[in-house]
Write a structure and sequence with these properties.
With 278 residues, the protein is of the alpha/beta class. The chain has a domain at 15-45 and 120-278: Alpha-Beta Complex (Lambda Exonuclease, Chain A), CATH 3.90.320. The protein is built from nine helices and eight strands. The strands form two sheets. Strands 3, 4, 5, 6, 7 and 8 form a six-stranded mixed sheet that branches. Strand 5 and strand 6 (154-160) form a beta hairpin. Helix 1 crosses helix 2. The longest helix has 21 residues, at 95-115. The two termini are 15 Å apart. 33% of the residues are buried.
Length: 278
């Protein structure tokens, strides 16, 4: 709450994002530690799959936004990845482990260059956008890439460096589309996950009904966030990659080793694509 003229208190806007919505849905205690107590910087640990994912995303960002189409070659993308890799080499168990992740990253950017249209001129690349939705709710999102298609409509493309899940959760892209629709006059009519490992794209249509549904679900979540007071821990598969296991009430405050499936986690899961300030 903040003071306003006349001595009345005014509620601060509630900032949400695809990641904070996901965290709150999974475990409200993690949400508290991360977004309210802001302990993430204190407890975050370097992880090899995040280092790799960061470098792959940064490489494709630069490749499509800074390199002219006629110079988008295998040699160029390889050089970009090596340059990014030299700047940050954290979370690895040793040289052999680092080389294994580096090889995986190199295979993904090379396959991207060979199999996908690298002459595309994206409208946006890793651009953060926010929009006010409802009373005092601000939604922040950052898409890896937004293309303007031949008909003028917009297509959101999100890169995934991990494994393709058996069932797709479109919440992230629906929320990205919701923000984008409030910031651009052109309709958002498609959204895709591009899985870089298997080089497969999964696409869904974005209609006004989809956006209305995403808004409704967001408002419901926002109401729950505002009403929450207990923030109980909810153990689940996400515990294996949670940074707060050393202080988690559900685990007796003792650290447990990460058991997350290798390559499954993404920037999306960790919120590295966004400011951590809901």
């Amino acid at each position: 709450m903040s003071a306003a003229a006349g001595g009345k208190s005014v509620a601060r806007p509630l900032r949400l994002s695809p990641t904070s919505v996901s965290v709150f849905t999974q475990c409200r205690y993690q949400y508290k530690l991360r977004y309210i107590d802001k302990l993430r910087d204190q407890y975050a640990r370097a992880k090899p799959y995040l280092t790799m994912a960061n470098h792959v995303h940064a490489t494709l960002r630069d490749f499509l936004s800074r390199v002219p189409p006629d110079r988008r070659t295998l040699e160029t993308v390889e050089a970009l990845l090596r340059d990014h890799w030299r700047r940050s080499r954290v979370g690895f168990r040793g040289e052999v482990d680092e080389q294994r992740w580096a090889n995986k990253a190199m295979a993904q950017v090379k396959t991207f260059t060979e199999r996908w249209d690298v002459t595309v001129q994206p409208l946006m690349v890793e651009k953060g956008l926010e929009a006010q939705l409802g009373s005092g709710i601000v939604l922040y999102a950052k898409a890896d890439r937004v293309d303007r298609e031949a008909d003028g409509n917009l297509h959101i493309v999100d890169y995934k460096t991990g494994n393709k899940p058996p069932k797709t959760d479109w919440t992230q892209l629906f929320l990205q589309a919701l923000v984008l629709s409030r910031r651009q006059s052109a309709p958002v009519d498609r959204a895709s996950f591009l899985y870089l490992g298997p080089s497969a794209m999964e696409t869904t249509s974005i209609s006004p009904d989809v956006l209305d549904g995403a808004l409704w679900e967001l408002l419901r979540t926002a109401r729950k966030v505002r009403q929450e007071s207990k923030y109980r821990a909810t153990p689940g598969t996400w515990c294996g990659y949670c940074d707060f296991t050393p202080i988690c009430t559900a685990r007796g405050g003792e650290a447990t080793p990460s058991s997350a499936p290798e390559g499954q986690l993404e920037l999306w899961d960790y919120g590295l694509e966004e400011a951590d300030d809901p």
